[in-house]
TrEMBL record:
It comes from the Bacteria. InterPro entries: WGR_dom_sf (IPR036930), WGR_domain (IPR008893), YehF/YfeS-like_WGR (IPR049809). The keyword DNA-binding applies. The keyword DNA-binding applies. Pfam families: WGR. CDD domains: WGR_MMR_like (cd07996). Residues 1-86 form the WGR domain. Keywords: DNA-binding. This is Putative DNA-binding WGR domain protein. SMART domains: WGR. One of its GO terms (molecular function) is DNA binding.
């Protein structure tokens, strides 16, 4: 599962993205990979947690809710990776 969130506030020169992705490894446990930064840039990446898939899914949902409360919105279906900031 993967979700891309964006926060765009031109008056504050704020063009940010937050990508949250669940991945499975060879041992059927999961990892939560998070990438964030300015839209149009590669940004930073971190593996936030690993463990049982149920735990990773709960953390995934928690991170999405937290970012939505902070003003991020789910990116539209017409999004293309690597686009430049307006």
């Amino acid at each position: 599962m993967e979700i891309r969130l964006e926060k765009i506030e031109p008056e504050r020169n704020c063009y940010r993205f937050y990508l949250i992705r669940q991945e499975r490894d060879l041992f059927e446990s999961g990892s939560l990979v998070v990438q964030w930064g300015r839209i149009g840039q590669a940004g930073r990446m971190a593996i936030r947690s690993s463990g049982p898939p149920e735990r990773i899914e709960a953390l995934f949902e928690r991170l999405v809710r937290m970012r939505l409360r902070r003003g991020y919105a789910i990116a539209g279906a017409g999004f293309r990776s690597g686009g430049a900031a307006p």
